[in-house]
């Protein structure tokens, strides 16, 4: 998958385009087993991590920091005998991208090719959603299509705890990652569901510290056990209906 995404980035950032043909079907055929061996310590996982890191270093500009923070298992650079090879390849690809091909930046790719992306930008907020009444409790995703929990906040350091990281978008969606958004289809429970841009059940408004569900006009609240997120009638006197979207720094400036 990393290679497919890498090729897509290269095409768009370096003057080409990949278009979707309506009614077409695209699939990815996976082998049941790899015909190659991976003698390196860590096996295939180590190889894939290095490939992801190289794509981030060469092509993602300041968004590479966001990638690393959301993927604590991805090393910024390999160790041991692979370190030199990694830096050489990254340097060559940087030179090829900037000086030879004169490719555009990752921001162009996000605007022109991936307008439904989950990456942060100047118009979005990324961070933890903390309950104002219980400031040690945060929203937390468990798995796609599962109810959203409220759990003890994991303090972000160099690395973030991805299940507690959310991105508030310009369209009022609260994204957990590239595929899931906060959703409430039955006007009571809150799920991490597959993102659908036109789904009003996935649109929210922040009003005076309260998250208001656009479709139902109900407010984000805690369950009776304080362990799940639910929707209830908005009541300004109910302190646990107030939340703070605590912004976290996500980028490294690229001059």
UniProtKB/TrEMBL annotation:
Q: Which PANTHER family does the annotation name?
A: N-ACETYLGALACTOSAMINYLTRANSFERASE (PTHR11675), POLYPEPTIDE N-ACETYLGALACTOSAMINYLTRANSFERASE 3 (PTHR11675:SF118)
Instruction: Supply the source organism's classification.
Output: Eukaryota, Metazoa, Ecdysozoa, Arthropoda, Crustacea
Name of protein: Uncharacterized protein
Q: Which UniProt keywords apply?
A: Disulfide bond, Lectin
Against InterPro entries, the record matches this protein to: Nucleotide-diphossugar_trans, Ricin_B-like_lectins, Ricin_B_lectin
- A single GO molecular function, which one? polypeptide N-acetylgalactosaminyltransferase activity
- Domain of life assignment: Eukaryota
Give the GO terms filed under biological process for this record.
Answer: protein O-linked glycosylation
The species this protein belongs to is Cyprideis torosa
Q: Which Pfam families match?
A: Ricin_B_lectin
Which Gene Ontology cellular-component terms appear in the entry?
Golgi apparatus
């Amino acid at each position: 998958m990393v290679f497919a995404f890498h090729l897509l980035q290269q095409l768009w950032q370096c003057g080409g385009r990949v278009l979707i043909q309506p009614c077409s079907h695209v699939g990815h055929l996976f082998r049941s087993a790899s015909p190659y061996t991976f003698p390196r310590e860590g096996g295939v996982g180590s190889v894939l991590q290095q490939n992801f890191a190289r794509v981030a270093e060469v092509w993602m500009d300041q968004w590479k920091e966001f990638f690393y923070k959301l993927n604590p298992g991805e090393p910024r650079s390999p160790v041991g005998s692979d370190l030199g090879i990694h830096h050489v390849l990254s340097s060559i690809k940087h030179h090829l991208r900037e000086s030879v091909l004169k490719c555009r930046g990752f921001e162009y790719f996000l605007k022109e090719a991936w307008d439904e992306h989950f990456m942060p930008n100047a118009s979005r907020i990324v961070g933890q959603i903390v309950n104002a009444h219980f400031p040690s409790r945060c929203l937390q995703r468990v798995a796609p299509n599962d109810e959203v929990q409220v759990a003890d906040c994991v303090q972000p350091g160099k690395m973030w705890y991805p299940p507690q990281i959310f991105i508030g978008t310009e369209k009022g969606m609260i994204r957990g990652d590239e595929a899931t958004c906060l959703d409430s289809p039955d006007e009571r429970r809150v799920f991490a569901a597959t993102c659908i841009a036109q789904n009003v059940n996935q649109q929210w408004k922040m009003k005076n510290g309260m998250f208001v569900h656009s479709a139902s006009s109900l407010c984000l609240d805690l369950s009776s056990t304080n362990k799940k997120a639910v929707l209830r009638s908005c009541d300004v006197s109910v302190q646990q209906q107030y939340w703070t979207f605590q912004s976290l720094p996500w980028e490294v400036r690229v001059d």
